[in-house]
Write a structure and sequence with these properties.
473 residues; 19 helices; mainly alpha
Length: 473
């Protein structure tokens, strides 16, 4: 054991661990969740410490030996991805100070251990004076959070893009598959599954654009602003250098915010990004609801589509298969919507020059990012790509539904069409069949009027009217 001191007092720390007193206090103080800080934040923090060491050396405030050792320690941790020494809980008080100190302590201890290899004398590297030089939790923690979000974003956007592609493929596959269109769950006018799938694809394209639009916002960082954005304890040379160096280290395209005080205290970038994910979650949930409704039954429901069978649906009802993939997507959507409420409340609760609630914001946002990507992946792979439309049944529903009579109203009049609909309902015959039997219009015209092209494209009706007029005359 070793004894470490802080402003509170002393504490025994196991001699074989890299973390120190601040990390241990955090572990004891915040027994809220077993979840530790997201690895993407830890990776980003290590890249920040590496960039800061290089920038401080260039500024002449950190000697080269210490800078090299800090860089070596960061490189070793980044390469190994062994983050066991980062023990602070994801939910913590202190605006992220515990995580920053955890990183400082681990990098400091590892750098000192590296310094004594090959029998050399140990170089003392202080977690605050050296590793944290020119920095504060208040500019490094939000920067690490934004970096983590940016790193996870391509996975999410790729998943949404795959969903758009899968829906577009379904739109092409079932371009002419006619179906009953519904408003307020009541029969309305005919449409096609091609139009339906195309509409879904269009909806998710907008979600994709919204997500990509947040990238620029998340790229603006407050690094160099230190405590409240004024840059106290940081040299001008460091402030000019640290972000460009960090970009080289992280392969990101970060920019220094134009107003560091604003960037330190404001959380609107996080609410905007979370809001974009909430919009995606709402759309995913609506889409999943539609899939469950359209596949309901199969004997006593709509049964217009068949979803891939993925698991037995009941321990008591033989043969029952449930829409488990849309169901799990629904639940992820609920979670993301709830996370957005958390982010909104946390952002709103910031006071004066700092928001103390970024830990819960980051946990919520990064969870949403990862769960959405995985949910969409399983939705595409295990559901959308295998959807089958019951084409013949859907066409029969249209032909035997009164909605198909809408195309007759311009030719036969509203009242005559209404009487035909009533007759069709009472006799359970199709309107098309009755019109032909009564010889109200030429058979060829009737066939054309009740074709998918006319039933689903109102603009074509004008052409049919002129044809009908000449035939009737």
């Amino acid at each position: 054991m070793r004894i470490e001191k802080d402003c509170i007092g002393e504490m025994f720390v196991p001699d074989n661990v890299l973390y120190g007193i601040h990390s241990l206090r955090a572990k004891h103080n915040f027994p809220i969740t077993n979840e530790k800080v997201d690895p993407a934040i830890i990776q980003s923090y290590l890249q920040i410490k590496k960039a800061a060491a290089i920038a401080n050396e260039k500024a002449g405030t950190l000697d080269k030996e210490k800078s090299d050792l800090i860089v070596s320690a960061c490189n070793q941790l980044l390469f190994s991805k062994d983050y066991d020494a980062f023990i602070t809980p994801a939910i913590q008080g202190g605006a992220g100070t515990s995580t920053n100190m955890n990183v400082n302590e681990v990098v400091s201890q590892l750098a000192m251990r590296i310094s004594i290899k090959n029998g050399r004398e140990k170089v003392e590297i202080h977690p605050n004076d050296d590793v944290n030089q020119s920095q504060s939790t208040n500019d490094t923690y939000p920067t690490a959070g934004k970096m983590a979000m940016l790193k996870l974003l391509p996975t999410l956007t790729a998943a949404v893009s795959d969903l758009v592609d899968a829906l577009s493929d379904k739109a092409d596959q079932y371009a002419t598959a006619i179906k009953v269109g519904r408003t307020q769950l009541q029969d309305a006018v005919p449409t096609t599954f091609g139009k339906s799938f195309s509409a879904y694809a269009s909806m998710f394209k907008r979600d994709l654009q919204r997500l990509k639009g947040t990238q620029k916002l998340l790229s603006k960082v407050s690094l160099g602003g230190t405590a409240i954005g004024t840059g106290i304890n940081a040299t001008a040379a460091y402030q000019e250098t640290v972000v460009p160096v960090l970009n080289k280290v992280s392969h990101l395209s970060l920019v220094s915010a134009s107003n560091l005080v604003d960037a330190t205290q404001s959380s609107d970038a996080f609410t905007t990004f979370s809001g974009a994910m909430k919009a995606l979650a709402v759309d995913l949930s609506k889409f999943s609801n539609d899939l469950r409704l359209l596949s309901s039954g199969p004997q006593a429901g709509l049964n217009e589509i068949q979803l891939p069978k993925k698991a037995a649906g009941s321990s008591i009802m033989p043969g029952k298969v449930n829409p488990i993939i849309p169901e799990v997507v629904n639940q992820v959507a609920f979670e993301v919507i709830g996370n957005d409420v958390t982010v909104t409340m946390a952002a709103e609760s910031g006071q004066l020059e700092l928001n103390a609630f970024e830990p819960i914001m980051f946990k919520s946002i990064l969870t949403s990012e990862q769960h959405l990507a995985r949910a969409i992946d399983t939705l595409v792979e295990n559901c959308v790509s295998g959807i089958k439309v019951n084409v013949d049944d859907c066409r029969s529903e249209v032909e035997h539904s009164s909605i198909s009579a809408t195309v007759l109203s311009p030719l036969l009049g509203y009242e005559k069409t209404t009487s035909l609909i009533k007759e069709a309902v009472s006799t359970k015959k199709s309107v098309k069949e009755i019109v032909k039997a009564k010889h109200l219009l030429p058979d060829a015209l009737v066939d054309n009027l009740f074709s998918p092209e006319v039933l689903t494209n109102v603009s074509r009706i004008k052409d049919e009217r002129s044809v009908a007029g000449s035939n009737l005359n």
